[in-house]
Automatic annotation (TrEMBL), chain A:
The lineage of its organism: Bacteria, Bacillati, Chloroflexota, Chloroflexia, Chloroflexales. Pfam families: AAA_31 (PF13614). InterPro entries: AAA_dom, DNA_Partitioning_ATPase, P-loop_NTPase. Residues 2-175 form the AAA domain. It comes from the Bacteria. This is CDP-3, 6-dideoxy-D-glycero-L-glycero-4-hexulose-4-reductase.
From TrEMBL, chain B:
PANTHER family: ATPASE INVOLVED IN CHROMOSOME PARTITIONING, PARA_MIND FAMILY, SEPTUM SITE-DETERMINING PROTEIN MIND HOMOLOG, CHLOROPLASTIC-RELATED. Keywords: ATP-binding, Nucleotide-binding. It comes from Candidatus Chloroploca asiatica. Signal peptide: none annotated. This is CobQ/CobB/MinD/ParA nucleotide binding domain-containing protein. GO terms for cellular component: cytoplasmic side of plasma membrane; cytosol.
Amino acid sequence: MSKIISIHSFRGGTGKSNTTANITALLAQRGLRVGVVDTDIQSPGIHVLFGLDEEHISRSLNDYLWGKCEIKDAAMDVTSILQQFKPGLKGQVFLIPSSIKAGEIAKILREGYDVGLLNDGFQQLLEDLQLDVLMIDTHPGLNEETLLSIAISDALAIIMRPDNQDYQGTSVTVEVARKLEVPNLLLVVNKVPPVFDFDHVQQKIEQTYNCRVGAILPHSDEMMVLSSSGIFVLKYPDHPMTARLERLASLLIA
Amino acid sequence: MVECVVFHSARAGIGKSTLAANTAALLARRGQRVGLLDANVQEGGLTSFFGLGAKAIGCTLNDFLLERCEGMDAWYDVTPNWQLAPASVMLPQAGSIWLMPASPRLRDRAALLQTGFRIERITDDLIATAESLQLDTLLIDTHAGIQEESMLAMHSLAVAQTLVLVLGLDQPDYAGTAVAVDIAETLRVPQIVQVVNQISMLFDPVRVKQELAQTYRHPVLALFPYHPELAALGSADLFVLRYPKHAITRVFEHLAEALLTHVDPLQSIEQPPG
């Protein structure tokens, strides 16, 4: 059975795209066929982690939403890019990027699109590409497309930082996910200062939100130096952070 | 005439609000009357730095844009309790901080998206507000990225003397910063400066400064290393007041000083932007 996993956060800058790309790589390492859709149409970014820029992207999610192509035509097989880091990687990874052309972003923001097409597209992708897992990288906040991707997800990871600015929005998002009856709901606490007691953070967050914490991810200097130009778990397979992300990946596909 | 400084970044979560709040505290400690506008009407969180709980907040920028209140109804005196600051770090005449928050209520955020609003309502009101509150400096914190919500930032730039671009050393920062610089230059913002935040100790700060100044043609005023103590505060307090002698506080002070001394409207008329 294939699964849809959404990675979301209420505020920007929490590390959604990074987490999505890393979980994707870990699942591919296990031999799975994984699709990644960048539904952050307003501020797309995950393509950077796969080493892609404007020149590489010929078709995008935008073209599908405008009826210019089928969604599978916008899927780029990025497996070979991951294999540069990890020769012999068994699975396969397809990326469906959002357009990064300023004009196209402006057009879709101005004109809007039929959100229902997203759901059809996701189902079509699972079928056409015979995916085991479809990962959805969302736009922060609670808009129509986010609600839709939460509603159809088998698993949802809500990412937050241990920061007062993140707390209220996160609790609203958790409530919404509960109402939408997401079967597997996890919180991920990211960029935790190394001076914190991680067990204590986990306990406190689980208590406060009454929701399971899938991972506590420390702030990492290596992650920052990599600066979105590569996928951490492939570059640092033995890093403790990778072990934490491995556990998160297992929880998400459980 | 009030000095207006806009804080903007290409990417969210890079520390705009932390910089704006702490800069406000330092300027106020020097005796200034400082205004702080949270123009991030969708995700703003400046209230948390001043311990202003959601329940204590009535009118906000969202309400004002929705024409539910007058401008002055949405400004709050959030001046820190200077008595709590050690005497050694206090200057004789402490000033004050006034905050116009963005709404923490989801329905107010949604209302702006649904009904739309006239941005001019706030930019037109700012000068009058600054006069009645007798502000020396007005700091505007914006939504990240150039998109619908950041129209507010663009309009603020028209009244701003200084744009502080906050960036980390991450790929999405680069393209976004270039776009923001272009827009600010087109709008003839007299002074554009960069502040680099959350950088790893593994980078050479001197080289980073030089390269960024060269790439974006505007000076780097300050460079903040990632610091766990700052992150550990979790936006719950003003770092510079809690840790007045900390090395990071000195970087904040340097920034506040630079903003004060560089911002010189006369000089900016003689120097064409770019």
